[in-house]
């Protein structure tokens, strides 16, 4: 008889993520992988050279818990220029191991057992497990196709005395919806007289298209005071594997955030932080990202003309959703397209807790033109029905 009793899971609903499943399936079938959200190209040679410089200069020991000073200062300048809002580099900016850590630390700093947390769904997959590990309950506000705009009446109905936190993601993964100033005003008005905090996942802050502009919660005076703004250098500079992100929050919130961060990772990778600090001093490096991705989105959509898919051009992020007409569940179609035509995508139903099926597949267009062209060519060959 084993002396070890069986471990009861704290996350019974969590299994292998769809991103792993689809990427594995893509690899098995030699399919073009437009499923997972990472660029198919490298970060800029200048940025890579800076990392090498700091590695060789011996910046290889623990960074300060809050992040290296030049990076916090560079972020403070960037935020001031971009959003007209100052965050104090000593007290209000913390560098983290990716936005994932920032999100987890912010949620943990706020949520206690019994608290309710409003989550807009479809939702990025890391929010709910973080809420549940802290004893909180996610309360879902569903965004509906085709626009996936926020139904503010529904938000108002779902706020209760137990609501402690609201998680916002703009530009939104997977729908590409970009929150408007009106959205921020509506949110601010609803929580004005309540003890409710906000986590803003703004990892795609630099990727918006056409006339859509990112409005950060940092820009909204009332929201700024109660928001943890989480960002990711990985997304902005095509280096997702580096996992360096940050949290901007007023001093009182940052103090609590840091208590968690301190025991979660303590600090993050040193030479990369110095490299990013130097790289951020040239604003063009992040200002050019939107045009870079817009060109990719437009290219991908041009190549899809003549296919049986329909779409609304994505407002932001590096994802484009394509809808289809047949009755096949989106999960099944994503698997079949991977196996049969060699293009992997993500079925958007996985981003809903009840797996709402809008017959919509998410494609990541952060790939080189050759890959996008080949993928589109294959998608154009799909007849629009399954036999
Ligand atoms: C909406 C959203 N938030 C957070 C993350 C994670 O960012 P990071 O890689 O910096 O941890 C991702 C990555 O896909 C994302 O799409």
Automatic annotation (TrEMBL):
Keyword annotations for this protein, in alphabetical order, are:
Aminotransferase, Pyridoxal phosphate, Transferase
Domain (Aminotransferase class I/classII large): residue spans on this chain: 32-379
Provide the Gene Ontology terms for cellular component. cytoplasm
Report the superkingdom from the record: Bacteria
Can you name one GO molecular function term for this protein?
A: pyridoxal phosphate binding
What cofactor does its activity depend on? Answer: pyridoxal 5'-phosphate
Per its UniProt record, what Gene3D superfamilies does this chain match?
Aspartate Aminotransferase, domain 1, Type I PLP-dependent aspartate aminotransferase-like (Major domain)
Q: Name one Pfam family in it.
A: Aminotran_1_2
UniProt lists the family membership as follows:
Belongs to the class-I pyridoxal-phosphate-dependent aminotransferase family.
Q: What is this protein called?
A: Methionine aminotransferase
Q: Which organism is it from?
A: Siphonobacter curvatus
């Amino acid at each position: 008889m084993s002396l070890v009793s069986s471990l009861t899971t704290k996350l019974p609903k969590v299994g292998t993520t769809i991103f792993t499943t689809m990427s594995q399936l893509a690899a098995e079938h030699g399919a073009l992988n437009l499923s997972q959200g990472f660029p198919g190209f490298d970060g800029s040679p200048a940025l890579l050279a800076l990392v090498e410089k700091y590695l060789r200069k011996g910046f290889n020991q623990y960074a300060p818990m809050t992040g290296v000073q030049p990076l916090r200062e560079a972020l403070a300048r960037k935020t001031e220029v971009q959003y007209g809002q100052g965050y104090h580099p000593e007290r209000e900016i913390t560098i983290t191991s990716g936005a994932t850590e920032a999100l987890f630390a912010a949620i943990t700093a706020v949520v206690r057992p019994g608290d309710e947390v409003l989550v807009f769904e479809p939702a990025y997959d890391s929010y709910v497990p973080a809420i549940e590990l802290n004893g909180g309950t996610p309360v879902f506000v569903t965004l509906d196709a085709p626009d996936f705009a926020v139904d503010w009446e529904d938000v108002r109905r779902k706020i209760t005395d137990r609501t402690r936190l609201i998680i916002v993601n703009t530009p939104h993964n997977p729908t590409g919806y970009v929150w408007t100033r009106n959205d921020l005003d509506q949110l601010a008005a609803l929580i004005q007289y309540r003890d409710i905090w906000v986590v803003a996942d703004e990892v795609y802050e630099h990727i918006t298209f056409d006339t859509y502009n990112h409005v950060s919660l940092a820009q909204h005076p009332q929201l700024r005071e109660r928001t943890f703004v989480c960002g990711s250098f990985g997304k902005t500079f095509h280096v997702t594997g580096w996992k360096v992100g940050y949290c901007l929050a007023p001093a009182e919130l940052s103090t609590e955030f840091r208590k968690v961060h301190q025991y979660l990772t303590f600090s993050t990778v040193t030479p990369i932080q110095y490299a990013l600090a130097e790289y951020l001093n040239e604003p063009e490096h992040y200002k050019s990202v939107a045009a870079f991705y817009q060109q990719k989105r437009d290219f991908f959509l041009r190549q899809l003309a003549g296919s049986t898919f329909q779409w609304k051009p994505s407002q932001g992020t590096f994802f484009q959703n394509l809808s289809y007409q047949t009755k096949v569940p989106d999960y099944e179609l994503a698997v079949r397209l991977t196996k049969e035509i060699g293009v992997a995508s993500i079925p958007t139903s996985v981003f809903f807790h009840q797996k709402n099926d809008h017959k919509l597949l998410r494609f990541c267009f952060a790939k080189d033109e050759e890959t996008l062209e080949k993928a589109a060519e294959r998608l154009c060959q799909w007849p629009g029905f399954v036999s």
